Amino acid sequence: MAFRVDDMDRKILDALQRDASLSLDEIARQVGSSKTPVWNRIRKLREAGIIRQQTVILDAEALGFEACFFVLIRTSEHEAEWQANFLKALQDRPEVLEAHRLAGDIDYILKVRVKNARAYDTFYQALISEVRVHNVTALLSMEEIKSTHHLPLIGTGSPNQG
Fold it and tell me: In what residue span(s) does the HTH asnC-type domain sit (predicted)?
């Protein structure tokens, strides 16, 4: 049976997305509930897999990771063994922040965060030494305009309404 997310769950999730370090008392105050029901809902949301993990968001540039590349990959290989090797190569590289398999002319897009262009080249050379790709295009992000993991749960007609 699918877990049904109701309005109170969405309020709790919205508060946690803004700041997962909030105390239970503060979350309860923000959502208009008390601590125990909020804790029980958070526990159930974790058990259902809706809350996957709690983490912190770091400032990449402040830590010296000044270059963000979007890497477009085309391949002529689609066998299971190649895909497994490609997936392992991506999983083994901490520079890869995101990887998506696409529909259309491009097979994969990667979001890669590195210190500079030389570090990207090191990443690129290591990747192509492990897996064969037909074509790679790297696009350097000149400016990050918006970046969020915050899902629009409140006031948007969000899916899975209970």
Answer: 5-66
